[in-house]
Amino acid sequence: MPGENLSRDEARERAALLSVDGYEVSLDVRSAVGDAQDGGPRTFRSVTTIRFRCNEPGASSFADLIAPSVTAVSLNGRDLDPSEVFDGSRIVLEDLAADNELVVDAQCAYSRTGEGLHRFVDPEDGEVYLYTQYEPADSRRVFANFEQPDLKAPFRFEVRAPEEWTVWSNGAGERVDGVWRFAETKPISTYITCVVAGPYHYVTDSYERVFEDGTRLEIPLGALCRKGLAPHFDADDVFLITKQGFDFFHDHFDYPYPFGKYDQAFVPEYNLGAMENPGMVTFREEYIFRGKVTRASYEGRANTILHEMAHMWFGDLVTMEWWDDLWLKESFADFMGAFANVGATRFKDAWITFANRRKAWAYRADQLPSTHPITADIRDLEDAKLNFDGITYAKGASALKQLVAYVGQDAFLEGARRYFKRHAYGNTRLGDLLSVLEETSGRDMAAWARSWLQTAGVNSLTPQVLLSAAGTVDELAVVQEAPESHPELRPHRVAVGLYRRTAEGALERYARAEVDVEGPRTVVAELAGAEAPELVLVNDDDLTYCKTRFDDTSLATLREHLGAVTDPLARALCWSALWNMTRDALLPARDFAGLVLRFAGRESDIGVLQMLHAWTDSALVHYAAPDWRETGGRLLGEGALRELRRAAPGSEQQLAWARFFASVASEEADLLLLRGLLEGSEKIDGLDVDQELRWTFLAPLAAHGAADEGVLAAELARDDTASGKRHQVRCLASRPSEAVKAQAWAQVVESDALSNALVEATIAGFAQPSQRDLLAPYTEKYFAAIERVWAERSIQIGMDVVRGLFPSLRDSQDTLDATDAWLSAHEDAAPALRRLVLEARDDLARALRAQACDAAAAAR
Description:
single chain; alpha+beta
């Protein structure tokens, strides 16, 4: 991987020297079908013509290409010897002219890791499907280019493919004389070009809009998936959200969608959630639901559709200059996903999901040793790959939500409109956005940016309440704290809510005040004289990004009456705060689990309920004292089964509790019930055990040795699909056997035969909480292998292995010491690799602190 890296300094030097007029890319992917070639990777022909200018004639530079071989290179009509100018990742370009034409004829490799041109063979029918995925820098695996976001250019693609296939790219295409030719794109960056090819199932629609000036816009819409998923494909709902999104963004951005058609491809073995290629957005195919799912899944898909659509403006039309300012697209798209979901679709509670789920991702990332400002210091492409994280996405979006509260929604949106018009098809930095926001808001954006965008860490806000002799609020203040490592106390626009129980027992807000929190202590004068509260909720309405804490009275109230909080957003914020306290070793894990068992059955928001299930599972596995885990598992199993039987038949709450029950099932009676539900000898009224739920129930049976290889093979025969194969591989790796673990380890660490999706499935099955002793030998093996894996495998697989196989379930001081020993002995290891290990170490240390807190609670 290091030989394929590109530094920021190199990119800046090249951008100062070159400008690109256009690309012509010709791909021949007919080799994707048929027998494999003898020896070496399966390859396809890629011929690229780049026309570019050099402002210092006679200078030297380089083009990017990662390919097994190069057949020919021509620069300005001169044939160059590929063996002399190509080193496997770069093509040296010497003695450049003012105007240049580079032609590169190469044999590029199909990918099995989801990077570059990914080739997938559907086990159901043997059909081959192709798609590309490039961000941040993998288009060079498909065609020669200048792989950096600020060297934008128009692209023309042509593709030769098998006769029965259809091919899509960014522009509209047609097949002429056996070749698919696509319309030239607007100037875009290399990483958002795209090709999708294969016998995909394709559905069409169209979007029309007439603007106030009479201008008419028509956007051809398409949606595609594998033929095997076509029976499950609800394209009508995808198109509904798409049209609602286009209406919303046209209303708010005052800049018509600029890229012609709008196809959305749901593709197999995808590493990401989705990718914003203009005119050809790609999504992971898991967004096509094979079984019954809850409303939260549909909301999540809608959020992703709108997130990617927002990128058409934030990222594609206007692009960051370098990956330091990745937030200029990802933070805005993350914010706009929720903003548009609430404003345009049926998912009016999307801000609850944002507060509960997205911000949890940000809070975790912002407390790791690798935390960074939203505007990060990205030295090279490896840094860039790792910075697609909770800070860049969810913290950045939270900062924008705070910015809207700070400058007002109208000023914020007017700033966006000016930004698009001023920088269309160009590249920007932080200052370009701040300047338009200063114009529209009249605020000093530099000070806001210094506090919110250019510092790291998360603040904690805690209420202090002093009561008068009459029992009213004498003074209410908000205390702000910051960790020693990141001591910045930020300005926060917050709402402070006071809650009391009604005569009917509901816990409702009776007073609210908005205040600008500055420095270590801020008095909320507006709330003086109010009735004494039972609960004070700092950051009510979730206006800012912070960890919310409680005073003693409020915490006692939540312990007894959390389920009585009637407002769903306030309730979600309380749950989130309690989870952060659990992670910070301020609330014992068993207490959090107890609150979930007591109150989660009354949770009306299905997304919050599913998040609570995930958090509770983590609390048991990582944060509970080891000697309480067995008891905790039994209590959670009993509670989950009780709520499963109590839930309304056929409801999404019933489905959520069924999945949670399976995740915590460990007692023999629980496993027998799961087996009975699979075999049909047990029934729960209203619970439809469809194919996806069958795999959910099989997972704990396999992990506890109650479903052997034969049972899993029979289930795969029942569901002989790509999805079924992934489930089977995960279950096979989860079986409690030394031989099984050795085989799974070898398949992932010692071999590169598995595709990215099957690597992910094997890793997911390998480490089971009930098998801690079986995993003991792999701590030493892990630290012996990771540097080699990082050097030899693609960065995506490297990340999967380093993160997924870290011995977190061997949660002891010995494992922490082994991690520290590796870090001390490998100070010169790749910085991105060290970052991953440091993050895993921090998670382990946090778990040990939480376990100590939980054990101390038991001793009291």
